[in-house]
Amino acid sequence: MVGGVLALVLAMVAPAGAEPLAPEALIERLQAGGLVIYWRHAATDRSHDDYDLSDMTDCEGQRNLSTRGREQARQVGKGFEWHAIPVEQVLTSEFCRNWETAHYGFGEYEIRTELYNLPIIQDDTRREELIEGLRRHLNTPPEAPEKNIVIVGHDLNLRHAAEVEIDEAEMAVFEPHTDGPRLLGTLQPDDLKH
To answer: Can you tell me whether residue 89 is helix, strand or coil?
Structure first.
């Protein structure tokens, strides 16, 4: 069922007639640069929900990475290094699960408030700003064309901005284009193993 939904979603955002790239081909394409990788934060501890977001630097009131999630994030970072996938910058939501994913994967990252988790926002204008902001990010190529940009974000934001749904720790790879960002395919952490 999930595969069928993913196939439908890919058909909606990929250019006409384009098949999503298999992991090996997608990795080769990433090695060439010029792409935007939307990485949903790694696996979280589902026994704990966000309950206090009054201080975003306090992780205690948030749903955080599980041990498996930290391992997934490290695995992705090692995979990028092993496959020589060049990264220009890593942008992340201010939620602890996101910046920790970025930290364990790449070390350096930049927190961006416009990547804030969409379900928390009740104001319609602010929600639209977040959705449009993510669309712009997905369609903004790296300054160095031989590198890539990584965005560590949330599921619902991507669903609204690009009609793509991915699981925790999964990556959706986009090519900026004049007609809007084109989804080239998706990667799981295990796809980057060597």
So the answer is: strand
